[in-house]
Amino acid sequence: MIIVTYADIAENALQADLYLPEGEGPFPLILGVSGGGWIRGHRGALSAWGSFFARAGFAFASVDYRRASAETPAFPGNVEDVAAALRFFTEAGREHGIDPQRIAVLGVSAGAHLGALASLSPAFNCPVPKAFAGIYGVYDLLAHWQADRAVNSVTAMDKTECLLGVKPFANPLIYHQASPLRQITYDRAMPVFLCWGHVDREVAPEQSAAFAVALRQAGYPVTAVELPDAAHLWFSEEAPDAPGSFSARIAPALLRFFRRVLTA
């Protein structure tokens, strides 16, 4: 693994952990966006998947992005950070053994939200990836806020409000602009892989199910893997080669997806 700096934001370097296969490139790239509820987390959470994909012949880059706090919203800056990574590896990929024409995005939880927005919305002015994969992601911000309000104390810090810096009924438009579900258009009908668990208490399963329906209605080829007994966090906590793990259960399907969309 090597560390690559792909952007500087307010004198803070944004970096990627880059995993490369053995041998000669250029290799297809999977751009990984880790989770953490928009307020925490680290790119290192996807290290096991980086090694897994490199062994399978893919380059994998797990990228930094800005985090939110109660005082500092992160949107749209955090999506712009993911977009900056897409631009960097498209423009300078060959210097790092990467084929800039074969780049896909893989996002996890909050990272799936950011990766989906960068992939689907023209507002972020970045190259359109060949495909997108989302693991138990957030795709409709208003619905996510409502689900959190239903189970959490109204006095607790709300992560969606931290992300956007405002309550939904004070600024409905920003909740619309920040929702990948609302950015689906006919002209970006890339292949999409979605996976979610039916007993997820952090991100409602309906987030992924509704996203899959809308994508299919717009003509996107969607591969959906549902895990009836899975909750949240497992993708980052379990290695894809751990026997009996949820990660091991979906790893073959995920690998087939990326082989189909990036190496055909």
UniProtKB/TrEMBL annotation:
Q: Which InterPro entries match?
A: AB_hydrolase_fold, BD-FAE-like_dom, GDXG_lipolytic_enzyme
* Superkingdom field: Bacteria
Q: Per its UniProt record, what Pfam families does this chain match?
A: BD-FAE (PF20434)
Checking SUPFAM superfamilies in the record gives:
alpha/beta-Hydrolases
Q: Which UniProt keywords apply?
A: Hydrolase
Keyword Hydrolase recorded: yes
Which residue ranges does the record assign to the BD-FAE-like domain? 17-214
| Entry protein name | Acetyl esterase/lipase
The lineage, from the top, is:
Bacteria, Pseudomonadati, Pseudomonadota, Alphaproteobacteria, Hyphomicrobiales
